[in-house]
Fold:
Amino acid sequence: MQASKLSAGISALLATAGEDELVEVVVELGPAERLAVPAGSSRSEAIAAARSRFEERAAPVEVSVDRAGGRVLERAWINQTLKVRLKPQALRDLSDLDEVRAVDTTRTLTAD
Structure:
């Protein structure tokens, strides 16, 4: 397990979560490689290419979550994250994947 990928909030969550309890976390993928978009491509074509690259990079993480009995709840290609629900031990294993940059707790956003 790469503890450097786990936030302080995750460490606290793991310390209190039961072995069979499902926890919800946000998995941030590593930095995306710059895509070479052909000259003259439209904005929508560039967005489609970025989404496609995210799906490619997220696929091994999603497979790992599924194999561990977890579930991908949401995908956010724009910020390269997945919201997942899985058991604590599977979370520890997930942090070892090369595609995973960080794992953090979920947060609710509120308007100022």
Q: What stands out?
A: The radius of gyration is 16 Å. The first helix runs from residue 8 to 16. The longest strand covers residues 23-29.
